[in-house]
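Protocol step 4 of 5: obtain the predicted structure for the target chain.
Materials: sequence only (see below). No template structures provided, no constraints applied. The aim of this step is simply to have a reference model before the mutagenesis design in step 5. Sequence pasted as it appears in the construct record:
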Amino acid sequence: MVLKPDLKEHAYFHIRADGAFIGNDPARGPWSADHCHAGPVAGLIVRAAETEVGPEKMLTRLTVDLLRPLPLAGLRVAAETTRHTKTLATTRVTVLDLDDTLCATATTMHMVRRDLGPVPNITLPPPKLDDAVTGPFPIGETLHDLPGFANHSDILYPKDGNQNAGPKTVWMHTPTLLEGEAQSPIQALCPLADCGNGISWNAPTSEMGFMNTDLTVQIHREPTSDWLASQSVSHWQSSGIGMSQSVLFDTEGPVGTALQTLVLFPPK
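Step 4 output (structure tokens):
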């Protein structure tokens, strides 16, 4: 488990003087040299929502609609409260480019933390990390030659786990969200949560593209470890519509789930 030397030093974004978020190399997605991977942007959305609601409530649901590509050149993220009670809060978040074009919208739900003591629950062990083996980033191909998200993510696979097409499990350790700022546990989860389609592809990108149009994450426990895992499966249909499903883990057990709707596009 040797980390890349710059993994924590090179964050996904830095903040410009006017408050815009400028993408660094780790935020670059696989489909375009000029646009972000949606996972780090989801982290910015969570950051805005958590700041808006406050620390007494935990973010339990995030739903992001990706309307157009997210430029590395700069994004503005703003959250507004749509409901706030003693038990829960909801927000609406917008992501604009530097020309004020709407690139993504999101909604979040946050629930108050209580101390109930022990409660009945099932125990699901996480995938084994101790004997996990290094391997390539799940998507080996990109549509550009510049460093990006894949180059700045450390990847481990369970011993004897699948590293080819189909359902698979991946452990991932990723950069921090913003230069000079500690990220919250759920912000740290977002890059992995948006990788379900890239983890569980059913054919390589040379045969079929599989871009997600949205992301929904349900979280029942804040992760506590730097290494996070995703058990993912993708369903592709001849209609050109697909879906990925992921169960998300820290080293203690499951923390939530992620869903993506996929658009399938044969290569030109």
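Step 4 remarks: The first helix runs from residue 38 to 53. The helical segments are 38-53, 185-193, 196-199.
Proceed to step 5.
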